[in-house]
Amino acid sequence: MLKGFKDFLMRGNVVDLAVAVVMGTAFVAIVTAFSDGIITPLLAVFGSTNQLGLGFQLVSGKPATFVAVGPIITAALNFVIIAVLLYFVVVIPANKAKKMWGAKTDALTDTELLTQIRDLLAERSAGGRHEL
């Protein structure tokens, strides 16, 4: 039972997934700090003078009915920033590396491969007749 678990952990996919989760968590922490330090104060400029931030009040005089729009905008911006960073930092370099060092995608079909073998055998047998 432990051998199967060890084999599972040592697969390349599990290790790659673990690295991706750690990198994703680091990106989230960086983007959240950026949002909290820069984007949230910029959104607060457009809000009212109260402490609740950017949003609107459903019932005046009841703070519990305040609909906060600022955190929704901040979360959407976080998502876009993370997606853009991951695309340019991970996806594009991985695609370039796959093109450079990856396997060729121009694989021969079975028919083409058999035709090449037939032609090579025909050349070999034709060459063998001349040697006798």
Automatic annotation (TrEMBL):
InterPro entries: Mechanosensitive_channel_CS, MS_channel, MSC/AndL, MscL_channel. It is a multi-pass membrane protein. GO terms for cellular component: plasma membrane. The chain crosses the membrane at residues 21-46, 66-90. One of its GO terms (molecular function) is mechanosensitive monoatomic ion channel activity. Keywords: Cell membrane, Ion channel, Ion transport, Membrane, Transmembrane, Transmembrane helix, Transport. It is found in: Cell membrane. Belongs to the MscL family. Homopentamer. Channel that opens in response to stretch forces in the membrane lipid bilayer. May participate in the regulation of osmotic pressure changes within the cell. PANTHER family: LARGE-CONDUCTANCE MECHANOSENSITIVE CHANNEL (PTHR30266:SF2), MECHANOSENSITIVE CHANNEL MSCL (PTHR30266). This is Large-conductance mechanosensitive channel. It comes from Nocardia aurantiaca.
